[in-house]
Structures are given as C-alpha cells and as structure tokens.
Write a structure and sequence with these properties.
The chain is of the alpha/beta class. It contains five helices and five strands.
Length: 134
C-alpha cells in the first residue's frame, strides 16, 4: 500500500487498532470496525490479535484483505492512534467505570453520539464523518 491512505469512496481501506478499557469488573478491549463491506483492505499494526490465525481466517471468510505495517513503525497506524488518543482524552481519562455496561454506554455515546456526528476532521474537509458520508 505504501501509505496511500486516500481512497475514492468509503469502505475500501480500514485503519485498525485496539485499546484497553479498564472497569472494576474486568478489562474490556475496544477495537474499531464498522459495517460488512466486500473487498476492503484492513490495515493494522503487528498486534497479536491481528497476526493470529483466527483473524486471518475471519478475513478470508469475509473477503477482507489484511495489511500490516512493519514492526515498530507507528506511522502506518497513525490515523487510528489519533482516534484512540481522542477517546482516551475524552472518555477514558475522565471516567472510572464500575461495570462493562457502563463503559459500553459511555463509549457508544461518545463515538456514535458525538465523534461520528459532530467532530470535524481536517482530512474530511472539516466535516464530521457522518456529514462527509452524506
């Protein structure tokens, strides 16, 4: 891919990552994945969840092409890292979740109620993701 992160339409290239969300019950893991397109390229870092045989098989089963950055290269995944930095500053550093359900509700409200609908992105011409797709 050579870091060509510009595509002509949605759901051709996904940039992926995962982060831990602590609760008093257990640690949750938040991964960003949306929809069920065909023929998408799923680009991630070299995390064990993305190098596993189960993940490779799931990609094959759903016509998704896995792509990974080189080991120790933080730039391939920078867009997703930026998203998680926003989640950490906006949610995780401000809340101490008692339950999984509480964490899920707050994270969903943040991502689907604010980030996707209202947060403007310079890469999208200063539109929110929802406005950009419309």
């Amino acid at each position: 891919m050579k870091r060509r992160f510009v595509v002509q339409e949605p759901n051709r290239l996904w940039i992926a990552d995962i982060t831990s969300v602590p609760t008093w019950e257990c640690n949750l893991y938040l991964a960003v994945v949306r929809r069920r397109p065909k023929g998408v390229i799923h680009h991630s870092d070299q995390g064990s969840q993305y190098t596993s045989l189960a993940f490779s098989q799931r990609c094959a089963d759903t016509n998704v092409t896995p792509s990974m950055g080189s080991v120790g290269d933080c730039y391939d995944n920078a867009m997703c890292e930026s998203f998680f930095a926003t989640v950490e500053c906006g949610v995780l550093h401000r809340h101490h979740f008692r339950t999984r359900r509480e964490a899920q509700g707050v994270l969903f409200a943040f991502m689907d109620g604010w980030y996707n609908l209202f947060r403007r992105h310079s890469a999208l011409g200063y539109l929110s993701p929802a406005a950009f797709e419309r």
